[in-house]
Recover the amino acids of this structure.
């Protein structure tokens, strides 16, 4: 079962006009169900555009985008995914509870069902006590958690996230990363996660998709195997090896200073199979 | 309680300014190079506040009803017209704003005329509309139409701004929920426009009062506060306090309309009141 499948996808903004921009070209990507995939790349590489194509917020210029085995437009109408943006984008006139209920409301769920589901979701993100608060009363991290709860409210098989932790401080960010992983594991949701943080991509993902700009394309996909993702995983050799692999892919061909060496000899000395693993699956940039 | 106190304090300051100027100002007004820069402070131009209040208690004409009853009756009459004009203007403004938000081409085509409509002098327009009075609709309706004509403008412009206020993230979120234009309007754009709507309604309320008063004067409609101001101002030389009683009535009318808008706002803007941020 594939969660997302893109074949030969390209996206051109303002085609035929002087300000024509080729945002994406020749994108092929398949995401199996239950996988956590990060899209990473410099700004302007089209990673957000790619996410928006999957969400059918903007149409592809060529190629096919399928979500849960259906065309992206159909999948959107069936609410096959939940989405969260960098700004929490909560409706300030609704309480936290009613914000989480919004997608259910639009689906025509009964009042009792909405309430039960919203309560469940708020408990999941640890905000059960704040159901009656208004968004303006919450800190940025809490608002983002409400946004995640809202995205998950309809139990979508796919979660799309566009730099959801980008505006948060490092501490809140790390905590929310762990929470997000726990939630995804618990609900079995597949996730596409756009970020520009290498460490965030590596820590969260089963697979990191590296993109490069002008035109936006996939230059490498790097598999990450960290086992259990906890604080220990953030210190593990495999973690640093994957970070190096992603960094190398982002820089493109050419000499890259070996960061792993700087992090400590132990990390290099450990002949981890993963050190070669990610590198072999990485397709080098042309 | 605090708001009541500050309102009373404002009134006291106003009265103090009025009486203070009367006490120190030149009764003939201050004239500089042949131009009067400060008004006359004599009893004919600026009667004492207590004279106005006591005039309210005395009869309008010898043996007639006391002035306060006449002024109140006229104010209520005009309030009725104002309310009808305000409501009609608000609804029209709202519909125009929604149409302009929905269709870009309507916005481009209509907005210049919406603005143009307000630059046409009201006195030129009034006789035109008055032509229908008595045949197409009753006389007072003409005044209500003029009030609506002034009231729709701030609502249309403010509401359009409000409907366009949601950020892309909100609009895309609604799209991701497969919500169409109507449901996006109801769940996102309308609630988001409320902070823009209420200031616009306040302006519209004031405009409706002005429209009703000026409309009454220029169409010669009897029974309202506008007519009363004209009638009493004819007696200004012999009974200067009288015209101010009519003005008090007009001011009261404006306050009542503003209060009505505030009452409308109260239940809809609840989320704006409690804003102590929880940090965790």
């Amino acid at each position: 079962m594939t969660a997302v499948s893109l074949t030969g996808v390209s996206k051109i903004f303002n085609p035929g006009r002087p300000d024509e921009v080729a945002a994406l070209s020749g994108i092929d990507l398949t995401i199996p169900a239950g996988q956590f995939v990060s899209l990473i790349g410099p700004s302007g590489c089209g990673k957000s555009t790619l996410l928006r194509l999957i969400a059918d917020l903007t149409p592809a210029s060529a190629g096919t985008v399928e979500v849960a085995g259906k065309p992206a437009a159909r999948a959107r109408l069936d609410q096959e995914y939940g989405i969260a943006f960098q700004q929490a984008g909560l409706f300030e006139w609704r309480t936290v509870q009613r914000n989480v209920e919004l997608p259910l409301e639009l689906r025509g769920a009964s009042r009792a069902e909405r309430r039960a589901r919203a309560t469940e979701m708020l408990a999941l993100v640890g905000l059960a006590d704040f159901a009656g608060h208004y968004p303006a009363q919450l800190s940025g991290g809490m608002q983002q958690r409400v946004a995640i709860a809202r995205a998950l409210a309809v139990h979508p098989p796919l979660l799309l996230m566009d730099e959801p932790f980008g505006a948060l401080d490092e501490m809140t960010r790390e905590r929310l990363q762990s929470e997000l992983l726990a939630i995804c594991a618990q609900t079995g949701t597949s996730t596409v996660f756009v970020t520009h943080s290498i460490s965030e991509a590596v820590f969260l993902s089963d697979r990191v998709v590296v993109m490069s700009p002008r035109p936006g394309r996939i230059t490498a996909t790097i598999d990450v195997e960290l086992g259990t993702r906890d604080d220990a995983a953030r210190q593990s050799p495999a973690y640093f090896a994957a970070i190096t692999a992603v960094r190398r892919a982002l820089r493109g061909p050419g000499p890259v200073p070996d960061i792993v060496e700087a992090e400590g000899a132990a990390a290099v000395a450990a002949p981890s199979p993963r050190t070669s693993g990610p590198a072999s699956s990485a397709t080098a940039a042309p | 309680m605090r708001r009541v106190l500050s309102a009373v304090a404002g009134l006291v300051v106003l009265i103090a300014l009025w009486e203070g100027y009367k006490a120190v100002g030149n009764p003939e007004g201050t004239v500089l190079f042949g131009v009067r820069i400060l008004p006359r402070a004599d009893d004919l131009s600026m009667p004492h506040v207590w004279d106005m209040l006591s005039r309210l208690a005395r009869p309008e004409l010898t043996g007639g009803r006391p002035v306060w009853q006449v002024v109140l009756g006229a104010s209520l009459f005009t309030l009725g017209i104002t309310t009808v004009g305000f409501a009609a203007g608000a609804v029209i403004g709202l519909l125009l704003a929604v149409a302009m938000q929905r269709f870009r081409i309507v916005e481009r085509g209509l907005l210049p005329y919406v603005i143009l409509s307000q630059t046409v002098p009201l006195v030129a327009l009034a006789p035109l509309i008055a032509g229908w009075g008595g045949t197409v609709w009753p006389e007072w309706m003409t005044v209500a139409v003029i009030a609506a004509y002034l009231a729709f403008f701030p609502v249309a412009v403010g509401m359009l701004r409000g409907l366009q206020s949601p950020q892309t993230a909100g609009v895309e979120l609604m799209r991701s929920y497969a919500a169409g234009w109507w449901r996006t309007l109801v769940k996102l754009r309308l609630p988001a426009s409320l902070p823009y709507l209420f200031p616009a309604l306040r302006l519209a309320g004031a405009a409706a009062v002005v429209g009703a008063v000026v409309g009454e004067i220029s169409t010669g409609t009897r029974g309202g506060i506008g007519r009363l101001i004209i009638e009493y101002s004819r007696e200004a030389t012999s009974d200067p306090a009288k015209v101010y009683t009519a003005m008090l009535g007009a001011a009261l009318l404006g306050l009542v309309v503003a209060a009505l808008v505030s009452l409308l706002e109260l239940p809809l803007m609840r989320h704006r009141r409690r804003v102590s941020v929880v940090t965790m």
About this structure: Confidence is low (pLDDT under 50) at residues 259-286 of chain A. The first helix of chain A runs from residue 47 to 54. Chain A has two domains: 2-80+156-281, 88-155.
